[in-house]
Amino acid sequence: MAAARVTEVATKRKSALSPPLPGPGARDAEKTRLNILAAAEAEFAQKGLAGARVDTIAETAGANKRMIYYYFRSKEELYVAVLERAYTQMRTNESELALSHLKPLDAIRTLVEFKFDYSAAHPKLIKLLNGENMLNAEYLKQAKRLRDMHTSLVKTLGGILDAGVKDGTIRAGINPLHLYISISGLSYFYFSNTPTLSAAFGHNLASAAERATRRQHVVDVITAFLRP
Predict the structure, then answer these.
(1) Cα within 13 Å of Cα(216), Cβ side
(2) pTM of the shown model
């Protein structure tokens, strides 16, 4: 039943990242659309797809339900648009690191630091991912363009590993996909589970000092794994 609903959303929805805008007042219309997306991100991150209310999103965005349905047609399509926007922003920031222009170990260190800092700066993304994982990524699967972006990143990472093997700074035989998953996972798990880990160990892992310690630990783990 859920899969059928997802298919229905995928079939009927227009591009939520850049839908056609009405002629007059296009700039104001775009601002309204972005306000809706920002409000929806906060609502979905806090309550998930099932618990989120369109009325609350409209009120927070300073819009009305009619405008939400004009741009996104349904709550589900708005949810997909929020996921696409969050992922696209992260991938855009990753591409701006220009990793292929750095020395291999420096490039991977830069990526590790970026992933940690981005997770720290975007707590709503962590919550969105938690919620979508509970839905078995049924809505994220609609975002085909994101798959291409991920494939491109893994390809770039593979080239960096090859360059490191060639100059003797990185050992051979490392799978770039699994390396990226490890880089992401070491940061994601920390931020996703900070409350429970802090409670379990009786230690405030959300403090600035603990975050700095963890950041360096993640860098050290990954770079030690890479070295010959």
Answers:
(1) 5
(2) 0.82
